[in-house]
Amino acid sequence: MYLDFGAVWTELQASWAFWGVLHIYMQNAWKRRVEFYWKQLKTAKQVEQNSIRNIMDMNANLGGFAAALRAMNMPVWVMNVVPYSSPNSLKVVYDRGFIGSYHNW
């Protein structure tokens, strides 16, 4: 049986392009969410320039909110909570360098 490596390579490149575009889209989406969140905190005068905030992401999934906060150099500490009712993605949260827990509300 002959395997056409050119076709396989084309499929791999298309797949990588898709995931690269999706990754950029998700980065931009999280960036907008973080900017909105931070703006709301500043409007409510709940955050100061040098304050450290503790945040609990109660539906952390893959830790995207924590990653976006870290990427924007926000002075925050995030506790990622993966709900018991969703797939256990805590390993991904740990692999990204974050802390978290798996919890049944």
Task: Describe what this molecule looks like in 3D.
By secondary structure, this protein is an alpha/beta fold. It has a single domain, classed as Rossmann fold, CATH 3.40.50. It is 50% helix and 17% strand. Strands 1-2-3 form a three-stranded parallel β-sheet. Strand 1 (53-57), helix 2 (64-71) and strand 2 form a beta-alpha-beta unit. Helix 1 (5-43) packs across helix 2 (64-71). It is globular, with a radius of gyration of 18 Å.
Topology:
Elements: H1 5-43, E1 53-57, H2 64-71, E2 76-83, H3 90-95, E3 99-103
Parallel strand pairs: 1-2, 2-3
Helix pairs in contact: 1-2
Please give a handful of descriptors for the protein shown:
alpha/beta; globular
Quick structural summary:
With 105 residues, the protein is an alpha/beta fold.
